[in-house]
Specification:
single chain, alpha+beta, two-stranded antiparallel ribbon, 2 helices, 66% helix, 14% strand
Length: 155
């Protein structure tokens, strides 16, 4: 709604005539009504867009859930593989220690040569190194598994 009040006040003189005074009040009132008859499907399109964004967010959530599950399973399997490697490295170390002892004992009795002893000693050192690497991998993989399940985040 709109209203206005105004006035026309003054004096007017036309050629040689006397001044004439003007004093008129003016009134104005108006009423405006807007009603959208057709919005070009704007509301329907906004609802459709909001629904699409909601579905997109839901699919992103499902994707992130699947990704987290894959990470946990991968960390679990990596830990199992590292434990198997550690067991194999322990068995290799035991065998290398026995081979070293037997080769050294043979050398002491004159049945093996010094290059045989040196090779056996080198194999034993490799087995120890492999055992240490396998143990380190187990700890690393176990930490990754704990991290992927959220155990490391707990106080």
């Amino acid at each position: 709604m709109r209203t206005a009040v105004g006035g026309n006040i003054g004096e007017l003189k036309v050629e040689d005539s006397p001044y004439q005074s003007v004093s008129d009040l003016q009134y104005d009132a108006g009423f405006r009504l807007e009603w959208t008859l057709f919005d070009g499907f704007e509301r329907r399109n906004k609802v459709s867009l909001a629904e699409s964004l909601r579905k997109e967010a839901g699919e992103e959530l499902e994707h992130q859930k699947d990704k987290a599950v894959r990470e946990v399973w991968k960390a679990y399997n990596d830990t199992k593989v590292a434990l198997a490697k550690q067991q194999a490295a322990a068995a290799l170390l035991t065998a290398s220690e026995k081979a070293w002892d037997a080769t050294f004992e043979s050398y002491r009795h004159g049945l093996a040569t010094f290059p045989d002893v040196r090779e056996s000693q080198r194999d034993l050192a490799r087995a120890r190194k492999l055992g240490q690497a396998a143990r380190a991998e187990v700890w690393t993989r176990a930490a990754a598994f704990a991290f992927s399940t959220g155990d490391l985040a707990r106080p």
